[in-house]
Specification:
With about 280 residues, this protein is an alpha+beta fold. It has 2 domains: about 1-50 and about 205-235; about 55-185, Beta Barrel (OB fold (Dihydrolipoamide Acetyltransferase, E2P)). The chain is built from 5 helices and 7 strands, in the order ααβαβββββαβα. Strands 2-4-5-7-6 form a 5-stranded mixed barrel. The longest helix is centred in the C-terminal third of the chain and has 53 residues, at about 210-260. The relative contact order is 0.16.
Length: about 280
């Protein structure tokens, strides 16, 4: 098979197959990116269509986080409780590692919701807001997974915004989510806290039509490789069979010649006259 592969004809065909496969794989990747981009555009359009609503119109305390609640713009009125403020370490903003500053907001009615007010690189820069009435504008986000680190964190720090843990620490009814603060009326957060933007959109789903196109191109590439290997295998088998037939014909001819050769003396025809009793006399009529 290797002898057949390294002939000019099959090497040229191999180059063509490689070029086709590279093109098909690239087209598949392009279709996949289009599928993801289309899904993100659809999510962005849905988010842009959302109108800011009071928090109580989007979710209620102790209720499950809404399926379409992530990124929903909300506003809520209440007072910050700086005594229960905590920091979340090992967070990154613009390439810098630091802390999230999370402060509970006690809303009118007695329930509480965590508000991510900003980012600091030094815990000493995290100011404690006054307990004045404030209206917070922001975007909803679901709670984070529990902290699984082995290191014990200092007092006033928590590894994540773990709402199940906060539900045990805070006696008030708790909203099952937290808010990325985007604005305050009036502003009560120090300028030392850097604004933390809400999470960027990511496609949890894709456009299935474009995904099908991507898979189709990759199937074409795999089929091209399969056909090349099949044709190469068939050509190699045919070449081997042709050589075997040629050798077998020569052997058969040789055997026939050998079997047909006479080993004894050639037959002779005697010219002596036949005996008298064996002669056939001619009769004239």
């Amino acid at each position: 098979m290797l002898r057949t592969l390294f002939t000019p004809r099959w090497l040229a065909l191999l180059g063509a197959v490689v070029a086709v496969c590279v093109a098909f794989v690239w087209l598949g990747l392009w279709q996949l990116s289009v599928a993801q981009h289309s899904a993100i555009e659809e999510l962005q359009a849905q988010r842009d269509a959302l109108v800011e609503k009071p928090l109580d119109e989007v979710m209620a305390p102790h209720s499950a986080f809404p399926q379409d609640g992530a990124g929903h713009p909300v506003r809520v009125e209440g007072q910050y409780d700086g005594a229960r403020q905590f920091l979340v370490p090992d967070r990154v903003l613009d390439g810098q590692r630091g802390f999230w500053v999370v402060t509970p907001l006690v809303v009118d009615g007695g329930a509480v919701v965590p508000v991510l007010r900003g980012f600091v690189m030094d815990p000493a820069e995290a100011d404690v807001p006054p307990a004045d009435a404030v209206t917070v504008h922001g975007e909803l986000a679901p709670g984070e997974s529990p902290y699984l680190g082995e290191d014990t964190l200092p007092e006033g720090q928590q590894g994540t915004i773990d709402l199940s843990l906060l539900a045990n620490l805070w006696p008030e009814p708790l909203y099952n989510g937290f808010i990325f603060s985007t604005a305050e009326e009036p502003p009560v957060t120090s300028t030392a806290l850097a604004h933390v933007p809400p999470p960027q959109l990511t496609a949890g789903d894709v456009d299935w039509r474009n995904l099908g196109y991507a898979l189709q191109w990759w199937v074409f590439a795999a089929f091209a490789v399969f056909m090349y290997l099949k044709l190469l295998h068939d050509a190699a088998r045919g070449r081997g069979a042709g050589g075997a037939d040629t050798g077998g014909g020569a052997d058969t001819g040789g055997a026939a010649d050998t079997g047909g050769a006479r080993t004894g003396p050639p037959p002779t025809v005697s010219s002596a006259p036949a005996p008298a009793d064996e002669r056939i006399e001619s009769h004239h009529v």
